[in-house]
Amino acid sequence: MEKNIKSESIDEKNKAYFKSFIATRGGIGLLQISLAGLVIALLCLPITWNVAVLGYGINPLESKVNIFIICIAIFMLLTFLSVNLKSIKRVLLQHQGFLGILGVVQSILLTSILMFMFYMITQWDNPNEIWYGSNFSVIIIILFSLGYIGCLIYNFYWLKKQLEVGFSKERTTANYFAQSKVYESKSLWIIFGSSMIGAFLTGNLAKIFGVLFGLFLGAVFSRLTIEVGYSAYLLNKNKDYWITYIDEPKRSWKKIIKLRSKKISTYVVLIVLLIFAIAEIEDMYVVPEIWNIIFSYVTLVLFILLILILVWWIVKKIKNKNVGRKR
Fold first, then answer.
1. 199, 127 contact by CB (below 8 A)
2. Torsion of CA 67, 79, 155, 174, to 10 degrees
3. In 10 A of CB 318, how many CB atoms?
4. DSSP letter at 54?
5. Which pLDDT value is given to residue 173?
6. How far is CA 307 from CA 6, 90, 130, in A?
7. DSSP state of 33
8. What CA–CA distances, in Å, run from 316 to 50, 187, 312?
9. Closest by alpha carbon to 18, among 259, 194, 237?
10. Which of 141, 119, 99 is nearest to 40 (CA)?
11. CB under 8 Å to 86, separation ≥6 — which residues?
């Protein structure tokens, strides 16, 4: 009798955790950050596109790398439109099992494009090697792949162990606190900003930076992938896990712009786009020397701002972790 009561309490804990996970980080909220994946894919594409044209002299659409990035961009775009257009969103909510599978695919593709971004940094001094032109590039691809797969296996057994003992109330509650962070995708934008910092590094320093961050992202996002995968299984198995979503009231463009202007992620994206625009202008046009000097100083200032934002983000994460442990 005691064993039954214990097992029931564990089942209830697990059910409460995954219902909260699906309602916050693992449902529509996860699919909303497809916009971040779309932007990252579109900013990676011009680099690999130029490598095809200038480095190899071939049609860019013959490149498997370009096709891979284009497929990710299309998937992210369609996903973002699906969860933001009311008519399509309504249909998706009637098929939440499919919604869960969509989340798994997005989690894997998002991890792939983020890791690819840092893979490119390891090849920054030899851009033609982005297309596996050296033993080093092949080693990095194998390392990233094995690292991500290894972390998936580790987190699979972590989840299995957690299900046996039951998720704590603290973990369940933490999903609701993390909800706004997932919806805003602040962490993704700041990770992207840090990749731009890595793009300014050269030699072995760039390689070390790219490898460490690539492996770090694979480790971090592997847990999300496993949890989303198990959520998809639950959503297809039992409708008790289905969530009733309430449409948010419409907000005017002025309010949206005002809210967005308060987000650090907005400034990270703007800084990255400015750096990218300056680099493109210097490559495409003959710029007077005075403007070269101005661009150099502006780029340096933007670079320092990105470093400060990254340091602030890391410090804040550490502080929040310490506060959570004390509680």
1. no
2. 150
3. 10
4. I
5. 77
6. 50, 41, 26
7. T
8. 38, 11, 6
9. 237
10. 119
11. 247
Tell me the average pLDDT of the chain: 78
pLDDT, tens digit, 9 for 90 and up, residues 24-42: 888 787 888 888 888 888 8
Q: Which residues make Cβ contacts (< 8 Å) with residue 162, sequence separation at least 6?
A: 14
Q: For residues 50 and 44, what is the distance between their CA atoms, to the nearest angstrom? A: 10
Type of residue found at 2? E
Contacting residues for 258 by C-beta, under 8 A, at least 6 apart = none
Name residue, tokens 């972390």: 151
pLDDT tens, position by position, 274-315: 777 777 677 666 777 887 788 888 888 887 887 777 777 777
pLDDT band at 183 (very low <50, low <70, confident <90, very high): very low
Q: How far apart are CA 88 and CA 21, in angstroms?
A: 23
Separation CA 114–CA 223 (nearest Å): 15
Residue 84 CA to residue 29 CA, distance in Å, equals 11
User: HEC states along 160-221?
Assistant: HHHHHHCCCHHHHHHHHHHHHHHHHCHHHHHHHHHHHHHHCCCHHHHHHHHHHHHHHHHHHH
Cα 177 to chain centroid distance, Å, stands at 19
Which residue do the tokens 């005075």 mark?
290
Residue 148 has pLDDT above 70, yes or no: yes
Question: Residue 132 — left, alpha, or beta (φ > 0 → left; ψ -120 to 50 → alpha)?
Answer: left
Distance CA 126, CA 117 (A): 15
C-beta pairs of 246-249 under 8 Å, 24+ apart in sequence: 247/86
Instruction: Tell me if residue 132 falls in helix, strand or coil.
Output: coil
Residue 244 is predicted with a pLDDT of 77
Tokens of 43: 């900013």
Contact 72, 113 (CB under 8 A): yes
Give, in order, the Cα–Cα distances in Å from 237 to each of 100, 227, 233, 234: 11, 15, 6, 5
CA distance readout (Å), 3 to 13, 16, 161, 166, 210: 15, 20, 18, 14, 50
